[in-house]
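Here we describe the complex-level prediction in full. Unlike the single-chain runs in Section 2.1, the two entities below were treated as one system.
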Amino acid sequence: GQNIDQPTEMTATEGAIVQINCTYQTSGFNGLFWYQQHAGEAPTFLSYNVLDGLEEKGRFSSFLSRSKGYSYLLLKELQMKDSASYLCAVLDSNYQLIWGAGTKLIIKP
Amino acid sequence: ETGVTQTPRHLVMGMTNKKSLKCEQHLGHNAMYWYKQSAKKPLELMFVYSLEERVENNSVPSRFSPECPNSSHLFLHLHTLQPEDSALYLCASSQALAGGTDTQYFGPGTRLTVL
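The structure predicted for the assembly as a whole is:
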């Protein structure tokens, strides 16, 4: 079966760096998405990786290793507003999005 | 503002009621989606419409009935629901026809409680 694994919850300190991991086993691969979802709000797009390597976008970076079935989202200079759930999703060979359950990130002062 | 709106934001209904959820996208997209989001579970894709035609129906019970009158509007008609159907129902849209790599843009969701 198809599976996306990410930690259920993580805690970090304001101003610090946190890395949220995502591993996947899917039938084929056409890219990996990261979304941010604040409580009670819509998921919003953060990044899309289809080639191996690191994509940097301001304080957020996303890394992909297709051979390892692994990605991570790196958040730097954490701010209180970064408290949210982070969703990992993979496009399989049929271009279906397979979603992880999300990682709830708690930022402490 | 994501350009995808959903109404109502909250809905409480009894098991014998009939209600409808509405989604509207203002982005000029061609594909629209309904998802169910339950606590601590992955998003579950329910239905996909591409140019107003249903292209995906992931074994969703018949008590959920989608309708897509045009490329900007999507409805989810609900009847005789069960308490386990209580969840956040999210609508999304994407530029290209379903089946591509285009980013999906989500609405804020309808929090549904079935008593």
